[in-house]
Amino acid sequence: MLRIFVFSLIGVTSLGAFALGANALGLRPQRIGPALLDMLEVVGATVAFAAINVVLGAGAILTLRSLTPWFLPLYLAADTSLLVFSLFQALTFCAWRAYERRQGGAR
Prior knowledge:
Layout: H1 2-24, H2 32-67, H3 80-103
Helix pairs in contact: 2-3
């Protein structure tokens, strides 16, 4: 039941955003495809940043454990806030790349 509610909520807000964009903001519906591809790029970058952050965090924790008398639990490297910050990193990185592409400077 929870999944149905969540997917229904996401569907309704997505359709509302589409209607708002197409009607009130004058966005062209034909451009939703490239926008979805950009969204997938951000999702992929988020996963990459999250994986890198978890691996580096776990490595730092294991290094601190072996070199110092401190004990840090390994689950600190998998904190959910890392996913939010990974999303921020991905959004910034993808926006930077898009800006450079518009300026003709990126590959």
